[in-house]
Design a protein that fits this description.
The protein is α+β, with helices and mostly antiparallel strands. It is built from three helices and four strands.
């Protein structure tokens, strides 16, 4: 092997340094594997998005604003889950259907 020191004390020092470095690399590898396992567990345990959402207006006592499909990118921040029956009921009661995700079409309502 080239570029290694020829004397025993420096070789032992180099060996000790490499053993220390290997321990640090193994510890870092273990930490990254643990983080990845936690990330995978988080993805598996993530709750499914709701099927239907009801968006409330600024006034919490006011009427609802829109009905959305659960995965709509256009949903507002003031939404709550809805069951299938309650989503249908809200649409028949005159709550506006989102123009992006079209829950009225997904629920089988015909356009008038």
């Amino acid at each position: 092997m080239a570029d290694l020191p020829p004397d025993l004390p420096r070789l032992r020092t180099l060996e000790a340094y490499l053993v220390l470095l290997l321990g640090e690399v193994r510890a870092a590898t273990t930490l990254v594997e643990k983080r990845e396992a936690e990330r995978q567990r988080g993805l598996q345990d993530r709750p499914l998005p709701p099927d239907w959402l009801l968006e409330q207006g600024l006034n919490r006592d006011g009427p609802p604003v829109q009905v959305h499909c659960g995965d709509c990118w256009n949903k507002g921040k003031r939404t709550r889950r809805l069951s299938l029956d309650k989503a249908r009921h809200a649409l028949t009661e005159g709550v506006k259907a989102c123009g992006v995700c079209r829950p009225d079409s997904a629920l089988g309502f015909l356009e008038s």
